[in-house]
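Lab channel / #folding
Pinned by the channel admin:
"Please post every new chain as: sequence first, then the structure tokens as a reply. Keep commentary short and put observations after the output so the thread stays searchable."

First post following the new format, from NK:
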Amino acid sequence: MIVFGSKSGRDGAERRAEPRRTVNARGVISAPGLEMACLIVDLSDHGMKLRLDRGVALPAEVVVIDVAEGTAYVSTLVWQKHQEAGLRATGAQSLRGLIPARLTGAREAWMRAGGR
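Reply from TO:
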């Protein structure tokens, strides 16, 4: 029997491969031509759920920045519904110190958001 609102499968087991951590952290989404605030609702080793500041269609590839941690997550969009989105993180990189050139825009967005 499936209970409405249940996020687990038929047998009651969690379908995700790794556990999610509720973080509710302030974030910034960065992509070419896009920079916007978001809330990182939960995080796992390979993905995250975001609550967007406004209902904008995200591109397939984005960088999600955890402002407090100073970490950039290169991510692929898996699903989006209204102001929520699920992403698969393909890598995490600290924005402190030396960074790859491809994350220069993410570091600049992090600095504008108050990152230090």
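NK: The first helix runs from residue 104 to 112.
TO: also worth noting, Strands lie at 21-31, 34-43, 47-52, 61-66, 71-81, 84-94.
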